[in-house]
Amino acid sequence: MDPGQPGDRAPDDMERIQRYRALVLEYEALDEEIDALLARHRGATENMSDDDFERYRALAHRRDFLYNQMRTLESQIRLDEETGGSTA
Q1: Domain count, the chain
Q2: For 9-62, what is each residue's pLDDT tens digit?
Q3: Is residue 21 part of a domain?
Q4: What is the DSSP string of the chain?
Q5: pTM of the model
Q6: What is the dihedral of CA 64, 65, 67, 69, to 10 degrees?
Q7: Could you give the CA distance from residue 1 to residue 77 in angstroms, rounded to a whole number?
Q8: What is the distance between the alpha carbons of residues 71 and 74, in angstroms, rounded to a whole number?
Q9: 47, part of any domain
Q10: Which end of the chain has the lower number of beta carbons within 10 A, N or C?
Q11: Which domain holds residue 37?
Q12: Domain assignment present for 46
Protein backbone atom coordinates (compact mmCIF):
# COMPACT_ATOMS: atom_id res chain seq x y z
CA MET A 1 0.00 0.00 0.00
CA ASP A 2 1.24 3.50 -0.86
CA PRO A 3 1.97 5.69 2.23
CA GLY A 4 -0.14 8.36 0.55
CA GLN A 5 -3.25 6.13 0.50
CA PRO A 6 -4.97 5.71 3.89
CA GLY A 7 -7.19 2.69 3.13
CA ASP A 8 -7.97 0.63 6.26
CA ARG A 9 -5.14 1.93 8.43
CA ALA A 10 -5.20 2.11 12.23
CA PRO A 11 -5.19 5.56 13.88
CA ASP A 12 -1.47 5.34 14.75
CA ASP A 13 -0.73 4.50 11.11
CA MET A 14 -2.68 7.56 10.01
CA GLU A 15 -0.72 9.68 12.48
CA ARG A 16 2.54 8.39 11.00
CA ILE A 17 1.35 9.18 7.49
CA GLN A 18 0.26 12.68 8.51
CA ARG A 19 3.58 13.23 10.27
CA TYR A 20 5.41 11.97 7.19
CA ARG A 21 3.53 14.38 4.93
CA ALA A 22 4.32 17.29 7.28
CA LEU A 23 8.00 16.32 7.29
CA VAL A 24 8.06 16.18 3.49
CA LEU A 25 6.58 19.68 3.24
CA GLU A 26 9.06 21.07 5.75
CA TYR A 27 11.95 19.27 4.01
CA GLU A 28 10.94 20.68 0.63
CA ALA A 29 10.66 24.22 2.02
CA LEU A 30 14.14 23.96 3.55
CA ASP A 31 15.52 22.55 0.34
CA GLU A 32 14.11 25.49 -1.62
CA GLU A 33 15.56 27.94 0.89
CA ILE A 34 18.97 26.27 0.59
CA ASP A 35 18.75 26.37 -3.21
CA ALA A 36 17.87 30.08 -3.13
CA LEU A 37 20.75 30.82 -0.77
CA LEU A 38 23.17 28.96 -3.04
CA ALA A 39 21.77 30.71 -6.12
CA ARG A 40 22.42 34.12 -4.54
CA HIS A 41 26.06 33.08 -4.18
CA ARG A 42 26.59 31.62 -7.66
CA GLY A 43 26.05 28.06 -6.40
CA ALA A 44 29.04 27.90 -4.08
CA THR A 45 29.40 28.15 -0.34
CA GLU A 46 32.87 29.62 -0.92
CA ASN A 47 31.16 32.81 -2.14
CA MET A 48 29.06 33.20 1.01
CA SER A 49 29.65 35.61 3.85
CA ASP A 50 30.29 34.05 7.23
CA ASP A 51 26.69 34.79 8.27
CA ASP A 52 25.23 33.26 5.11
CA PHE A 53 27.47 30.21 5.44
CA GLU A 54 26.35 29.77 9.05
CA ARG A 55 22.71 30.02 7.89
CA TYR A 56 23.41 27.51 5.12
CA ARG A 57 24.92 25.04 7.60
CA ALA A 58 21.96 25.39 9.98
CA LEU A 59 19.47 24.87 7.16
CA ALA A 60 21.39 21.87 5.83
CA HIS A 61 21.62 20.34 9.29
CA ARG A 62 17.85 20.72 9.82
CA ARG A 63 17.16 19.30 6.35
CA ASP A 64 19.35 16.25 7.10
CA PHE A 65 17.54 15.73 10.40
CA LEU A 66 14.16 15.85 8.63
CA TYR A 67 15.39 13.45 5.97
CA ASN A 68 16.36 10.92 8.62
CA GLN A 69 12.98 11.26 10.32
CA MET A 70 11.25 10.75 6.96
CA ARG A 71 13.23 7.56 6.30
CA THR A 72 12.44 6.25 9.79
CA LEU A 73 8.72 6.82 9.28
CA GLU A 74 8.86 5.25 5.81
CA SER A 75 10.44 2.18 7.34
CA GLN A 76 7.79 1.98 10.06
CA ILE A 77 4.98 2.40 7.54
CA ARG A 78 6.45 -0.33 5.32
CA LEU A 79 7.01 -2.65 8.29
CA ASP A 80 3.39 -2.21 9.31
CA GLU A 81 2.30 -3.06 5.76
CA GLU A 82 4.43 -6.21 5.71
CA THR A 83 3.39 -7.46 9.15
CA GLY A 84 -0.17 -6.20 9.06
CA GLY A 85 0.22 -4.62 12.48
CA SER A 86 1.52 -1.65 14.38
CA THR A 87 5.18 -1.23 15.36
CA ALA A 88 4.43 1.22 18.19
Answers
A1: 1
A2: 667 888 999 999 999 999 999 999 999 999 999 999 999 999 999 999 999 999
A3: no
A4: --TT--TT--HHHHHHHHHHHHHHHHHHHHHHHHHHHHHHTTT-GGGS-HHHHHHHHHHHHHHHHHHHHHHHHHHHHHHHHHHTS---
A5: 0.76
A6: 170
A7: 9
A8: 5
A9: yes
A10: C
A11: 27-81
A12: yes
C-alpha 73/C-alpha 61 separation (Å) is 19
Residue 39: its pLDDT value, please?
Answer: 97
Question: What's residue 11's pLDDT?
Answer: 73
- Which residue type is seen at 80? D
Cα gap 72→13, rounded to integer Å: 13
Measure CA 69 to chain center.
6
Residue 68 has pLDDT above 90, yes or no: yes
Asked whether residue 1 carries a pLDDT value surpassing 50, the answer given is: no
Q: How far apart are CA 6 and CA 2, in angstroms?
A: 8
Q: How far apart are CA 35 and CA 56, in angstroms?
A: 10
